[in-house]
Amino acid sequence: MAACPGSPIACSALGGALREAGKYEQAIAAYQKAIALLTAGKLPPEEPRTTFRIDDQISGCEAQIVLCRHKLEAKP
User: Fold this and answer.
1) What is the DSSP string of 18-40?
2) Which stretch of DSSP H or E encloses residue 63?
3) What's the CA gap between 10 and 74, in Å, rounded?
4) Nearest to residue 26, comparing CAs of 74, 64, 76?
5) Residues 48/71, Cβ–Cβ less than 8 Å
6) Which of 8, 37, 65, 71 has its CA 20 to 30 A from that of 56?
7) How far apart are CA 46 and CA 49, in angstroms?
8) Quick one: pLDDT at residue 60?
9) What dihedral angle (degrees, nearest 10) is formed by the CA atoms of 60, 66, 67, 71?
10) Rounded Cα distance, 2 and 12, in Å
11) pLDDT for 8-21, tens place per residue?
12) Cα(29)–Cα(65) distance, rounded to whole angstroms?
């Protein structure tokens, strides 16, 4: 993510890697950062977005946050 500061794609990809590693709290934080970047509208020029694409990516991140929270609740 350090190579792509301000990139919601990098944040959500990091969230996915952390989720797969079982680091759910960190994954949630990465997904939340991606959502914050998308809603702020300050996207890198190499990552152009339409309103539909932004909404779609936000929904995906929100779904992953819910999944991580369920995994946290299920942890023994």
Assistant:
1) HHHTT-HHHHHHHHHHHHHHHHH
2) helix 51-74
3) 27
4) 64
5) no
6) 71
7) 10
8) 95
9) 160
10) 13
11) 889 999 999 999 99
12) 9
- Say if CB 65 and CB 31 are below 8 A apart: yes
Say what the pTM is: 0.85
Does an H or E element contain 14, and which?
Answer: helix 8-20
Who contacts 63 (Cβ-Cβ below 8 Å, separation ≥6)?
none
DSSP state of 4: S
User: Encoding tokens for residue 51?
Assistant: 């309103």
Token pair recorded at residue 70: 């369920």
Q: How far, in Å, CA of 67 to CA of 64, rounded?
A: 5
Q: Which two tokens stand for residue 76?
A: 């023994």
Distance CA 49, CA 64 (A): 20
